[in-house]
Design goal:
- By secondary structure, this protein is α+β, with helices and mostly antiparallel strands.
- It folds into two domains: 31-126, Killer Toxin P4, Chain A; 140-244, 2-Layer Sandwich (Killer Toxin P4, Chain A), CATH 3.30.430.
- 42% of the residues lie in helices and 23% in strands.
- It is built from six helices and ten strands; from the N terminus they run H-E-H-E-E-H-E-E-E-H-E-E-H-E-E-H.
- It has helices at residues 3-23, 44-65, 91-104, 152-172, 200-214, 248-265; strands at 31-36, 67-72, 79-85, 114-118, 121-126, 140-143, 176-183, 186-194, 222-226, 230-235.
- The strands form two sheets. A five-stranded antiparallel β-sheet has the order 1-4-5-3-2, covered by helices on one side. A five-stranded antiparallel β-sheet has the order 6-9-10-8-7, covered by helices on one side.
């Protein structure tokens, strides 16, 4: 192979890596909070027999629809489960995220309930029907105080504006919205997500509480509200997938098409 062909191949490889990085999504599998009930199930064996098929059902539903609820068993050892991916995740990214939920949530066993928040998805199980809950004692905020804004007053105002705008938009958009606000050299990005089982009134109630509490994270440059019925996050860095079509699955398909083209046109 002569130098011109070597140069051509190197150029194509570099373009391909850049293309791949642009095409891939981000499943956001970082665990930001896991909370297990303090009470153990009446029968760990029966709970296990119900827990496994409940997780199987949830995985099937979330993989197909991005959301699902399930009920397996009866009485004090029944398993009520809920799973959801955030709506900016593409199909493959959602599957990758929820597979992490599937592996981490059993750490709460044999306690009778537990929930886990990842940056891209959520999972919960209990021995009672919790599907209409929006607030409870395990609601939490997670603030990155290790990185604070150098201009706390102005930063707080930008956070307030961004959180308020996105919360309002989420109420109009079936519980999901992303957006940003800026002032001079400050910019804040926000994502809000209600679980799909909630109606408009319950979703709005959850968003109101989450928006109010997450403001206390300022001047931290990143904060999250982890609520029974919703999730909210702000950051000075763009963290959501800008376009669902740039998911891992789409990126993989484009990559195969790209290499097919390279094979045709390479000298």
């Amino acid at each position: 192979m002569d130098d011109s062909n070597n140069t051509w191949t190197l150029m194509m490889v570099l373009i391909c890596f850049n293309f791949w990085n642009c095409a891939m999504g981000d499943p956001r599998t970082t665990v930001v909070g896991q909370f297990c009930d303090s009470t153990r199930a009446g029968s760990g064996a029966i709970l296990a027999n119900n827990f496994v098929p409940a997780m199987d059902n949830l995985t099937t539903l979330v993989n197909a629809n991005g959301f699902g609820t399930t009920v397996v068993g009866r009485g004090p050892n029944a398993v009520f489960g809920l799973g959801q991916c955030l709506e900016d995740l593409g199909s493959i990214d959602c599957k990758l995220c929820f597979s992490e939920i599937r592996s981490q949530l059993p750490k709460c066993y044999p306690n009778r309930g537990g929930r886990i928040f990842l940056d891209g998805c959520f999972g919960r199980y209990e021995n009672y029907s919790f599907f209409d809950e929006v607030l409870d004692s395990k609601d939490a905020i997670v603030c990155s105080y290790s990185r604070n804004s150098s201009n706390p007053q102005s930063f707080h105002e930008v956070v307030r504006e961004a959180v308020g705008n996105v919360s309002l938009e989420a109420r109009k958009n079936q519980g999901f919205a992303v957006g940003s606000a800026s002032n001079l050299n400050l910019r804040v990005y926000v994502l809000s997500q209600c679980w799909e089982n909630l109606g408009n009134t319950l979703c709005s109630s959850c968003l109101n509480s989450a928006a109010s509490s997450i403001l206390s994270c300022s001047p931290a440059t990143e904060g999250r509200a982890l609520y029974a019925g919703c999730y909210m996050r702000y950051s000075t860095e763009l963290f959501w997938n800008v376009n669902q079509e740039t998911s891992s699955s789409n990126g993989m398909l484009k990559m195969l098409n790209f290499w097919s083209l390279i094979l045709v046109i390479t000298p």
